[in-house]
Each structure stands twice: as C-alpha cells, then as structure tokens.
Amino acid sequence: MEWTPDPRELADLELLLSGAFEPLTGFLGHDDLHAVHERGTLADGTSWPAPVTLHLPADVSPGDEVTLLDPEGLPLATLTVSAREPDGLTSGPVHGVGTPEHGPFARLRRTPSEVRAELGGRPALAVTMRGPLDDLSEIVATAKELDAVILLLPLAYGEAGPAVVRAALRARDQLPEGTLVVSVPLAPRDEPEIDLELREHVATAYGATEHLAGPDPVHIPGPPHRRGLVVFFTGLSGSGKSTIARGLRDALLELGTRTVTYLDGDVVRHLLSKGLTFSKADRDLNIRRIGFVAAEAARHGGLAICAPIAPYAATRAEVRETVESVGADFLLVHVATPLEECERRDRKGLYAKARAGLIPEFTGISDPYEEPDDADLTIDTTHITIEAAVSQVLETLRSGGRVR
C-alpha cells in the first residue's frame, strides 16, 4: 500500500533517513515507545529521549511493505512493517527510495555525514534555533573558548520554518567567517525537557562537540481585527445558515474594514467538489476542502465565511484545527433552528423526498446531525428575522475586536 504521513511524521521520516536520529532506523513500536516514556531509553536500554512514531489507518501485517509518499505523491521511503497496534501505531525500519522535496531553502538541507565531513574533525559549537538569536555574544565567546566552528541549526518545521532559517542567515552575517547554517526539519516536542534532549541528540549527530539551545520565540499575536478569521456556520438544511452567511458577507462588505471571502455551498459543490456524492466520506471530504480554502484565505489576514451543513463533530474539529494551524481564528456559529421548523420552511421539498426514501443519507432524517458543544454562538431563527440574526453575529465579531 501507499501512504502519505502527516507533517510531523514526514519531518521525523526525513531525520530517520538522513541519520540525524541515529541509532534509530525506523519508527518505534509499542515496547520501545513504552521504554522511552518510562525510562528515556529504547527497550534494549539504548538512550533515546522522544517518541518517533507513525500511525496507519489501514490494516497491515508484519512483513508488509508500505511506500511512504510526500504530499505531492512522490515516494520517499519504504517501511517494512514489524507490528501494528489496534490504534494504528505501526513500527518498522525505513529505507529511502527518493530525494525529499524540501521547499524553501532546499540548498541548506544537508545530512549529518555531509556536515561532519566538512567539519573534518574540527570542534563545532552547534546552536539549535526555533526563533531569532537576540544576543550573539555568548555564541562568539563560547566558540572562541573552544576554538570551534559555529554551526547554526535552524529547526525549520511548519509555517514558521522559513522565518527561522532567515533568522539564522541574518545571524551568520554577524558571526565569525566560516559559520555554517544547516536547516533541520525537527518538529517540536510538547515537553521542553524532552525537546531539549532531542535537540542535543541531533546536534551531536551533526558533529557538535558543544550545544547551545537558542531561546524559544515569543509569539505576540496581532490585534484581532488584523488576524485571519473563519466564520463557520453549521446547521440543518433550511435552518437559515446560508441566508445569515450571505447577510454577514453583505454587512462586512458595506463596512469595508475586512477583506471578505464567501464560500457559497452550491458554488463549492459545483466547482471545488464536483463529482462528490453525499456519502459520509464524500461529505467529510467536501468539508475538508472548504476548510482548506477558508484557512488559505485567512492565512494572511483575510476573513472567510462558509455555511455547509457540516453534520459531524470530528470533521468540524478538523477544520478548526486546520484554520488555527495557520495562525487564524475560528468562530463556529451553530444555527440551531429545530428540525420541525426546517421542514416547515422546505421550499424544495427535500425533507419530504427524504422521508419518502427518495433521498438517502439525508441529514436530520436518515443521517445524524451532531449538534456542536463547542459553538461560539448559537442562533435559533424560528422567531427572529435574518437581519436580527446577522446583527448577533456582527455583535459577536465586534465584541471580540475582530471587526471595527
């Protein structure tokens, strides 16, 4: 089978293949993972600080080979399965079959063996970076004391990765001649102590005789009215969500203080999701596509409005995570008009057809609607006008500072 790992797994895969995670030769299984959590070692007692795991959704058996792909579908490695746990945890050695597409600053991605060869046995002071280096004096003094080459290792993972590499290149220009910069796709670990141990291990793999960890970046979010925002309406067919969404779009365009993108459900179905059915899998895919486009619109400060039915809580949570992962805000509006009122308003006769069995898997009739328990705003349009509903949303945006 073929499988595209998630971004964190892909980053770990690259470090496994490059040798930066020596002595690991593949993803950890149950016993090694338990030992890492309990003792900071592998099951055989070898020191190792952090989980390096892969989860596969499909059943595989020991001895099976899985081709691991990059997001463009290019093969990166083969995984020979050693074991797969019920939760999808899959372990086994990996073997590289292709060159990763590194994206920005590809020229700065080098293997540990290449860097050690360039160092030629000279002592090296490695500085791992997740943000800018405010004070270079300690680095210069330590390198001078050790008579060492300075090796800057920007940990270029995720959306902030290119900025960290640019910070390293700026620092290099102020450091002694011969300072090296090598981009390393090391994903951060949740626990600071474990993250630091893993950074030290990677620095050693690149030939460091001494390691300094740069300060963690301080993230100061911009004012709410300048941050990206996705207003995501969910509710039954006929609840009024699309009409409120269009009214919100019009009101925001009249204000003129935000750049607005409106993802109309019918237009999305006709273009972005053309060919999809109304099965659960295809409806989830449709919502993911809407979420992706909305997140891209919000990535650089735009405001996106979308109003799909989005009946499943897990898929809505996935969209929220997609949006927040690009640094944007997510506002979930549940248009909670009761089913009886939605049926009474049904101009197209969809509910009647669904009850007659002519429309299978119709939300609210033959397929469930999972009401959100994490809505930021809940509106029932049974006894209020659309104008009043739009005003409620606008007031929520204003009170949160998202609209001026």
UniProtKB/TrEMBL annotation:
Domain ATP-sulfurylase PUA-like, chain residue ranges per copy: 6-82
Pathway annotation from the record: Sulfur metabolism; hydrogen sulfide biosynthesis; sulfite from sulfate: step 2/3
Catalytic class of the enzyme: transferase
An annotated GO BP: hydrogen sulfide biosynthetic process
GO cellular-component term (any): cytoplasm
Name of this chain's protein: Adenylyl-sulfate kinase
Function: Catalyzes the synthesis of activated sulfate.
Gene3D superfamilies: P-loop containing nucleotide triphosphate hydrolases, Sulfate adenylyltransferase
Occurrences of domain APS kinase (ranges): 227-380
Recorded coiled-coil stretches: none
Record keywords, A-Z: ATP-binding, Kinase, Nucleotide-binding, Phosphoprotein, Transferase
Gene giving rise to this polypeptide: cysC
Residue numbers binding ATP: 235-242
MF terms in GO: adenylylsulfate kinase activity; ATP binding; sulfate adenylyltransferase (ATP) activity
Reaction(s) this enzyme catalyzes, per UniProt: adenosine 5'-phosphosulfate + ATP = 3'-phosphoadenylyl sulfate + ADP + H(+)
One Pfam match: PUA_2
EC number(s) from the headed UniProt entry: 2.7.1.25
Annotated family: Belongs to the APS kinase family.
Lineage: Bacteria, Bacillati, Actinomycetota, Actinomycetes, Streptosporangiales
Domain of life per record: Bacteria
